[in-house]
């Protein structure tokens, strides 16, 4: 699903660029990071404010727990 979204974003950008090239402009190719950013924006565009906030919060929590699991055990515990 995510790959399809990235491809859709890239396809739309290429179509827009083809029109600009026909007008005489130089082509602009999206970097991989820019493609991912646009796909992410596109994914949350259809959601309402609270819905997007919840989705982003869940993703943040998931990423934080993954980082915590990957951290060595002796660094995970807080000594105090």
Question: What does this protein structure show overall?
Answer:
The structure is a single chain. The protein is built from four helices and no strands. The protein starts with a helix and ends with a helix.
Count of distinct strands: 0
N-to-C series of helices and strands: HHHH
Q: Main sheet, how many strands, which sense, barrel?
A: none
Helix count? 4
Instruction: Summarize model confidence as the mean pLDDT.
Output: 87
The percent range for strand residues is under 5%
Net shape = elongated
- What is the C-alpha radius of gyration, as a whole number of Å? 19 Å
Low-confidence segments, given as residue ranges, are none
Alpha carbon gap, first and last residue: 45 Å
- The amount of helix comes to over 70%
- Oligomeric assembly: single chain
Structural class, judged by helices and strands? Answer: mainly alpha
Task: Kindly list the characteristics that best describe this protein.
mainly alpha; 80 residues; 0% strand; elongated
Describe the protein's topology.
Layout: H1 2-22, H2 32-45, H3 49-70, H4 73-76
Can you summarize this structure?
The chain has helices at 2-22, 32-45, 49-70, 73-76. It has 80 residues and is an all-alpha fold.
